[in-house]
Amino acid sequence: MPQATERLRRYLEDELGECRSEDVERRLDELGTLEAALGTAQVDAELTVLSALANETRYTLVRVLVAAEEELCVCELNGVVDVSESGLSHALSQLVEAGLVEGRKDGRWKKYRATNRAVALVTVLEGSVTIDE
Known about the structure:
Number of strands: 3
Largest sheet: 3 strands, antiparallel
Number of helices: 7
CATH superfamily of the largest domain: Winged helix-like DNA-binding domain superfamily/Winged helix DNA-binding domain
CATH topology of the largest domain: Arc Repressor Mutant, subunit A
CATH class of the largest domain: Mainly Alpha
Strand content: 5-15%
Distance between the termini: 49 Å
Number of domains: 2
Strand order of the largest sheet: 1-3-2
Structural class: mainly alpha
């Protein structure tokens, strides 16, 4: 029996008072069903969003756009983060790809705004951490 299965058997034995091989197999099947219900496409899409936020520049851009509650020009965003114009463009492209920001051309200017997805994620994150001062 692999180590993980053996640990699961011991856990189920503690929980149920006794554990048979069928109990382990049934629980593994239940867990497999939970994993399959997620679907790889869903997991990949969620990881794209999380990866986009896992960078200080991109996260700062999202936070600023959410806080602004309006479109901001790239030139305004460039004043917020300390990156080159190409770095800013790359960061914004990744955020667009993740569905966290939307951009549009306004004459010669490019403007971006936070999507509802970004607002929801920032709201959840704000409520989930405490800052020790």
